[in-house]
Design brief:
The protein is 13% helix and 20% strand. 32% of the residues are buried. It contains 2 helices and 5 strands. Bound molecules: FE2/S2 (inorganic) cluster.
Amino acid sequence: MPDITLIEADGTEHGFEAPDGVSVMQAATGFGVPGILADCGGQASCGTCHVFVDPAWADRLPPPEPHERLVLETTAVPATPTSRLSCQIRLSPALQGLVLRLPDRQV
Ligand code: FES
């Protein structure tokens, strides 16, 4: 059950624990963290669950699939090299302590 920290664009931090196997998007929306719209429900097609992975964690996640890379080209706030779709990050014990930042808008 990893501890996750999501930081809003204004610096507000949200820390929570989430079960293994769920996506960051599912966990964050379940805990009421604002700033993730997830319009497609986790189908990796809307780009409204965009997050920036903290640089300290960027190399510890599996790389995005080609389809995810394409969707990241459509996000409201331009993607950076550490951008991910939070619906495509599955939580596991290896992600204990994961830190992510939210863009200031998703649309
Ligand atoms: Fe739509 Fe992640 S929820 S791309």
